[in-house]
Amino acid sequence: MSLISIISKDFDIPHTLSESQLRDAMVDAFAYLIDNDFSKLIQILYKADVDQYKLKELLETVEGVSSAEIIADAYIARQKAKIETWAKYSPKKD
Question: Which end of the chain has the lower number of beta carbons within 10 A, N or C?
Fold first, then answer.
């Protein structure tokens, strides 16, 4: 399963984005959610299993970066970790 296919379950994004374009799209999406639909933001982060304590610490300590960028990076990192875990524990195909 690809990163974009996982993220597209929560966001309406094209499947042709590069990783940097995907990050930009996620930053924009999270900026919108912060301003307009905070409950949906929380729901998406909960569903993705983003560590709320680590995210809170990042939001409080990282300077010079927007909240949307911090959230997008944490969300993408969590989705990548899921892919790695699935690959590690899925049956090997011969």
Answer: C
Helices marked H in 1-94 — which ranges? 3-7, 19-36, 38-48, 52-61, 67-89
The tens digit of pLDDT for each residue in 20-60 reads: 999 999 999 999 999 999 999 999 999 999 999 999 999 99
Q: How far lies 25's CA from each of 31, 41, 42, 43, in Å?
A: 10, 15, 18, 18
d(CA 12, CA 42): 17
> How far apart (Å, rounded) are the C-alpha atoms in residues 76 and 4?
10
pTM for the whole thing? Answer: 0.90
CA–CA dist 68, 85 (Å, integer): 26
